[in-house]
Structures are given as C-alpha cells and as structure tokens.
UniProtKB/TrEMBL annotation:
Keyword Nucleotide-binding: yes
One of the GO BP terms on file: phosphocreatine biosynthetic process
Entry EC number(s): 2.7.3.-
Entry binding sites for ATP: 18-22, 165-169, 193-198
InterPro entries: ATP-guanido_PTrfase, ATP-guanido_PTrfase_cat, Gln_synth/guanido_kin_cat_dom
GO cellular component: extracellular space
Family the entry assigns: Belongs to the ATP:guanido phosphotransferase family.
Keyword ATP-binding attached: yes
Originating species: Sedimentisphaera salicampi
A Pfam family per the record: ATP-gua_Ptrans
EC class: transferase
Name of the protein in its database record: ATP:guanido phosphotransferase
Higher taxonomy: Bacteria, Pseudomonadati, Planctomycetota, Phycisphaerae, Sedimentisphaerales
Keywords from the named record: ATP-binding, Kinase, Nucleotide-binding, Transferase
Residue span(s) of domain Phosphagen kinase C-terminal: 15-242
C-alpha cells in the first residue's frame, strides 16, 4: 500500500508541494519551558546541544542561538514553522541545523526537543527512519519523559503519545473553492487530520494549504505515515479530477485566469501577497495544462516562497504597505523567466 501510494504521489507534484516530519520530546525530570526557571532552561539547552553534537548527522552543523541570532535567520525559521514568536523572544532557545541542511533540531521550543525533516521528492519512510535513529541516540544520552498511558509527554496533550506529526503541503485550488468544502470536511473526518492555510499568520484555508495528523495517541508512527500518505493520495486524486472537470466545462474561465496571471505578474507596479498567491495558483494550473511555457513548478514555488509577507518584511523593513507591494512586484519580475509565455487552450 505504501509503495503504491508513494508512486502515485510522485505523479502529482502539481498537488503535493512538499512534506514535513516533526518529532517532539521532553527530558525526564525537567519541567516544560513555560514552567522552568532560568537555570533549568540553561541546563536543558546545554545537555541537549552537547548530546546532539556527538551525533554524526550534526557534526559540522550550524548552531543558531536566540541570544545573538540575526533577524534573517529567525524569520526563516518562523516561516518554516520551526519556532513561534515566544521562542523568538527567548534567550534560552537554540537551533541546530545538520550539515546537509535537511534536519533541524529546536531546543527549548514549545517542547525541550523538536526535530524536523522537510522534503519534496524524498521517500517519507526513509525520512522517518532517519528521524527515528536520531531520536534513539538522543534518548540513550538524555532520557525522555514517557508514561504507559500517554506515551511521550509533551507540553500540549494533543502532541502526546508518539509526539509525531506528518505534514503535507498542498496546492488545492479546486478543493478549496466554496462549493467543494464538503469534500475537505469528509477527508478530515475520515483520516483524522486537520487542514489549514500553509502561510504563517494567515487564517482559514487557501489554494496553498497543509494537512496534518491530529491523532498521535493509540497509533504507531508507521500507521500515521500510511494514513497520511493515503489521505494525500485521495485528496490529490480528487483535486486532479476537479481540475479536469473545470478545465473541460469552464475552459475560458481557466484560460482567462492564467493569461491575467501572466500579465499581472509580468507588469504590475504594486502587488499584494493575496494577489500574488492567486495569480501563482493560476500559473501552476497553466503549467499542468501545458498552457504556460518557460516556467517550471519548482520555479513557481520559489517565487511564491519569496513573496510571503515575512520574506518581504525581512528584506526591506518597510512600515508602508505600498513599499512592500512595490518591492514584491519588482522581485517577482526579476525571478520570472524572460521567455515565459502562454498558448491557447
């Protein structure tokens, strides 16, 4: 089942944009961050960092301390969902990034330890094995808080049990259309998952959304992976079906949206993030339909990630929204290939 699902997912890069695995742990006989005193937080930081640096995967890695971390790096970690605003303001937080840049360890975040692996074309099961090996080695050196009833203890009861979260980042413009909301409700209920906007500080759901497993107690990590793989395949297949249906019945609407997107992104003097999100969503549809030429999905996704409010604010520190929109438009036009064009449907 898993191999079959993986094969199907690799055929749907226009729907599944990437994955993220997250594992949370807390040291035995230590309080959670919000209850711990200064000396205890420093003790946790020192113990975890020293233990992690003994592992081959983190040797030669990069350490970011919140005491002296630069603004650009902090915003990048916030954008990826590795840390929260409270961690940003804390002087006790440390982030360790592996030398291959694929694995991130957050110390003294919401939990004492939070491990992340982000991927695109990676085998999610191999990523889990890597994460599990690191978890085993750290547990040998540190000892984690664990109980027979709730499994691994976490600061939020919703994360207890395995402490394991699987996230899929999706481009689902047809499913997020108002008329198809019931489909998403069905998937959430059937697979016990949540769906929300994948953009930090954005509410509701959008063309760019993410799904995560809600259940972590009473289920193994392997079962979580299989369930989420199956859900991602089902959602992707439904999205593809709806796209084909819309393109067949409302081709002129889709074509108009794609051509408008090309024109606006290439020529706008000011553009908001909401506009950018919508126009890039149409461009992705155009790439899939073979209408948009000279632009790859990978490049479109890169433009998207460099257009978010956090990324723009990080670059210009402008108090005026007009300046942000002006800078965003300029950056998009620098990144768009000169030979991008569209054809008739």
């Amino acid at each position: 089942m898993l191999k079959e699902n993986m094969y199907k997912l690799y055929q749907m890069p226009n729907v599944v944009m990437g994955t993220q695995l997250n594992l949370r742990r807390n040291l035995i006989n230590h309080r959670f961050r919000k209850s711990a005193c200064t000396s205890e937080l420093n003790d946790i930081k020192e113990k975890v960092l020293n233990a992690a640096l003994e592992l081959d995967v983190f040797k030669g890695g990069t350490v970011f301390s919140m005491e002296n971390c630069d603004f650009d790096a902090i915003e990048m970690f916030l954008e990826k969902g590795f840390i929260d605003e409270e961690f940003k303001e804390s002087g006790f937080g440390v982030i360790l990034v592996s030398r291959n840049r694929k694995i991130t360890l957050v110390i003294n975040g919401e939990d004492h330890i939070s491990l992340f692996i982000n991927g695109q074309d990676d085998d999610i099961f191999e990523s889990w094995e890597t994460l599990s090996d690191i978890d085993d080695e750290l547990e040998k050196r540190l000892g984690f808080s664990f109980g027979p009833k709730y499994g691994y203890h976490c600061s939020k009861i919703s994360n207890a049990g395995t402490g394991f979260t699987v996230t899929y980042f999706l481009h689902i413009p047809m499913l997020t259309a108002e008329a198809e909301d019931e489909d998403l409700d069905f998937f959430c209920e059937q697979y016990k998952l949540s769906i929300e906007n994948s953009i930090r500080d954005s509410s509701g759901i959008s063309d760019y959304s993410k799904i995560e497993n809600e259940q972590k107690i009473g289920i193994s990590e392997d079962e979580i992976i299989v369930r989420m793989e199956t859900a991602a395949v089902q959602i992707s297949e439904r999205e593809r079906f709806l796209r084909e249906k819309v393109i067949q019945k409302k081709s002129i609407v889709v074509e108009d949206g794609i051509k408008r997107a090309c024109a606006v992104l290439k020529n706008a003097k000011l553009i908001t993030f909401h506009e950018t999100e919508r126009h890039l969503s149409f461009l992705r549809l155009g790439i899939e339909a073979g209408i948009v030429k000279g632009l790859s999905l990978k490049k479109a996704d890169s433009i998207f990630s460099r257009s978010t409010p956090a990324y723009i604010q990080n670059r210009i520190f402008a108090a005026d929204p007009i300046e942000e929109d002006k800078f965003r438009a300029e950056q998009i036009q620098k990144q768009l290939p000169e030979n991008i064009k569209y054809e008739e449907m």
